[in-house]
Design a protein that fits this description.
3 strands
Length: 110
C-alpha cells in the first residue's frame, strides 16, 4: 500500500492589532477620530503641565495605564506594571496642603 499524504491541520488566521484597528476604522464600527479626540482631551492637562516644564518626552500615569508621550504625540499606551509606583507617593506628598492642623501633615510617625 502507498503512503497517504497527511493533511495539515487548519488553524484560524491570526489578526494583528494593526489590521484590527484598520478594520474597526474602515468599517465604521468605531469612530476612531472621535476616540482620538476624546483621549487627547483627557490627557490635555497633563500634557500642558509637562510642556510648561519644557519636557519633550514623558509619561502620563492614569487609571492603571502609562501613556508614553514624545514630542507632543502619544506613541504608545502601556499597562502600568509597578515600575513607576514610587512616583505616586511623591505626588501625594507634594499635593498635601501645608496645614499643620491637619494630622496627616506630619505623616503616620507623629
Amino acid at each position: 500500500m502507498g503512503k497517504r499524504k497527511q493533511r495539515s491541520v487548519h488553524k484560524p488566521v491570526e489578526v494583528s492589532n494593526h489590521a484590527l484597528f484598520r478594520w474597526l476604522e474602515r468599517t465604521g464600527v468605531v469612530d476612531v477620530e472621535a476616540l482620538r479626540a476624546a483621549l487627547s482631551l483627557a490627557l490635555d492637562r497633563a500634557v500642558a503641565a509637562s510642556a510648561a516644564m519644557g519636557a519633550e518626552e514623558f509619561l502620563i500615569l492614569s487609571n492603571g495605564l502609562a501613556y508614553v508621550v514624545k514630542n507632543g504625540v502619544v506613541v504608545t499606551v502601556l499597562e502600568q506594571d509597578g515600575r513607576y509606583k514610587h512616583v505616586r507617593p511623591m505626588l501625594d506628598r507634594d499635593n498635601q496642603s501645608d496645614d499643620r492642623t491637619n494630622p496627616d501633615f506630619y505623616g503616620s510617625d507623629a
